[in-house]
Design goal:
The complex is a heterodimer of chains A (about 325) and B (about 220). Chain A is about 40% helix and about 20% strand. Chain A has about 325 residues and is of the alpha/beta class. Chain A has 2 domains: about 1-115 and about 285-320, ATPase, nucleotide binding domain (Nucleotidyltransferase, domain 5); about 125-280, Nucleotidyltransferase, domain 5, CATH 3.30.420. The radius of gyration of chain A is 20 Å and the shape is globular. Chain B is of the alpha+beta class. In chain B, strand 3 and strand 4 form a beta hairpin. Classes of the chains: A alpha/beta (about 325), B alpha+beta (about 220).
Chain lengths: ~325, ~220
């Protein structure tokens, strides 16, 4: 059984073929790059996706040595994400499902990050730390759903890095650029550290970091301090959640999982609580088609399909609203 | 010689380790006292780590003082030791409400919960939320209740923050006293309503709204 997954929630247009055992045959993507100093423009990103869609799809089938006729289902990330971007992927997926007469499987993008993390790391019952441009959330599985246990009360950690980078005209991907700059830092500058129970808040940190820069502090020192504070805040929220839930595993997934400082801190937190920290590694950190294809495979096995006329995009689809029949606890 | 649970105590003694702090029993000018010591975290750079522990140590002392000003029974802070980021507080020689509720009569059980409801309403109407209300964070000394652990406490007039306090307590009762859960929570609400007045309905509604979001787990 082969499943095609299509990802187009934000800047990435990706496609991937997996089977029902979780073997990933291909994972192809093309990422829209915004100009330095500007953020992602939804319409331009959507135009980018329309242009690259055919090439990415045929690439995914070619790499997998699978023909379109062999596919048993098409999984599509219907949300959460940017409306114009979501609609490109959804249109492509609907056409394919309709033409090939195979099921169309609705997938929540955030659940995709969790499932690909579990698949590729071997975690079994983790406390999930989902960090990306769209999410900063701590979740654990309970009663048939992933429950948000802590999250950001304003912007995400990915937003923090991106918005900071944009203000100072750093090219994307912002996180990597900032992490590189931290290596030449010479001092730590105190910045607002806001943890409220299991929640974090980053907007004050962004404002204060930019203000430090304007007041003449070195860019490297500000980057280092901002990274230290933001990752430590999240580490503390994770520590509280870990102590509370008593989970033995932590799973770090999403685009910001590639940040070494965050990984290091979460490993330390896990060690304090005798837990194991699993970290997703590229290419499955950033948005990818495989996360959608694999979650689609799990969903279809549990009868989750959508009729084409019901397959509306859901830009604000929250992960705790998704029933997960394939997981027990 | 000071005694602890009827035995000669070897002090200081570590009696509890939390996510943020270690709790020691120690002597303080001839009396038994509690030292809550916030421990360094290796995942934070030392300067940041020290700042946070200092701020929180004094913040907790402030919350305890303000709650006490409202007339809520809490441990009295004897000393703030910023050197070791510790608070020295009165030792309350009692049992957690979680343990006590198992062994007292039905009417006592209800009366304890009602009293707790009154105490929490006094705090809330006075603008203080606790942030971590559980039956383990209430100590009963022969029936006199003390609320402890104000580490997540804050000043707030938001009904959501108050609703979270109620939800956390509701969950705590349900997870450890599920057979008498509704009876106990009803008694708590009676006490809460009695002090809070008509606005308590709004807080209860907020509690249900937060609960529907499903993010506050039952503690294992």
């Amino acid at each position: 059984m082969y499943y095609l997954g299509i990802e187009s929630t934000a800047h990435t247009f990706g496609a991937s073929v997996v089977d029902d055992k979780g073997k990933i045959y291909s994972n192809v993507q093309d990422v829209y790059k915004s100009a330095a100093g500007s953020g992602i423009h939804p319409r331009e990103a959507a135009e980018h996706h329309s242009e690259v869609a055919a090439g990415v799809l045929s690439g995914a089938l070619r790499d997998a040595h699978v023909s379109a006729a062999q596919l048993d289902g098409v999984a599509i990330a219907l949300g959460p994400g940017l409306g114009p971007c979501l609609r490109v992927g959804a249109t492509v997926a609907r056409s394919l499902a309709s033409y090939l007469r195979i099921p169309l499987i609705p997938v929540n993008h955030a659940i995709g990050h969790i499932e690909i993390g579990i698949l590729t790391t071997g975690a079994t019952d983790p406390l999930v730390v989902l960090v990306s441009g769209g999410h900063t959330a701590i979740a654990a599985f309970s009663g048939g759903r992933w429950r948000i246990f802590g999250e950001t009360e304003d912007i995400t950690i990915g937003n923090l890095f991106d918005m900071f980078a944009r203000e100072i005209d750093l090219p994307s991907p912002a996180g990597q650029q900032i992490e590189k700059l931290t290596q030449n830092a010479s001092k730590f500058i105190p910045l607002p550290y806001v943890v409220k129970g299991n929640d974090v808040s980053y907007s004050g940190l962004l404002t204060a970091s930019l203000a430090k820069l304007r007041s003449g502090e070195r860019l490297e020192d500000v980057c280092y301090s901002m990274q230290e504070v933001s990752c430590s805040m999240l580490a503390e929220a994770v520590e509280r959640s870990l102590a509370y839930t008593g989970k033995r595993e932590v799973l770090l997934t999403g685009g910001v999982a590639a940040n070494m400082s965050l990984k290091d801190k979460l490993e330390k937190v896990a060690a304090i609580h005798n837990a194991v920290c699993f970290t997703v590694t590229p290419p499955y950190t950033g948005d990818n088609g495989a996360q959608i294809a694999w979650t689609g495979a799990l969903s279809l096995h549990n009868g989750i399909v959508t009729r084409i006329e019901d397959s509306h995009v859901r830009p604000r689809w929250r992960l705790e609203d998704v029933d997960i029949p394939w997981r027990r606890s | 010689m000071l005694t602890y649970h009827g035995e000669e105590a070897d002090l200081p003694a570590l009696i509890y380790t939390g996510a943020e702090a270690e709790i020691y029993l120690q002597e303080w000018f001839g009396e038994m006292a509690i030292r809550k010591q916030r421990i360094p975290k290796t995942y934070r750079v030392p300067l940041l780590d020290e700042n946070i522990r200092h701020l929180r140590t004094s913040h907790e002392a402030t919350m305890l003082r303000e709650a006490r000003k409202l007339g809520v029974a809490v441990p009295i802070v004897q000393h703030i030791d910023q050197e070791s980021t510790s608070l020295i507080m009165d030792y309350i020689n009692g049992r957690t409400l979680k343990d006590e509720l198992r062994s007292v009569s039905k009417s006592e059980r209800r009366s304890r919960c009602r009293t707790l409801g009154e105490m929490l309403a006094v705090m809330h109407t006075g603008g203080i939320v606790h942030g971590d209300v559980t039956l383990s964070n209430v100590i009963s000394q022969d029936g006199k209740l003390f609320i402890i652990d104000f580490g997540l406490g804050n000043f707030s007039k938001e009904s959501e923050a108050m609703g979270v306090d109620l939800l956390l307590l509701n969950r705590s009762i349900r997870s450890t006293h599920y057979k008498v859960h509704s009876e106990l929570f009803r008694s708590f609400v009676e006490g809460y309503d009695c002090v809070f007045g008509h606005k308590s309905r709004e807080i209860m509604e907020k509690m249900r709204e937060v609960e529907r979001r499903g993010r506050y787990f039952e503690r294992g």
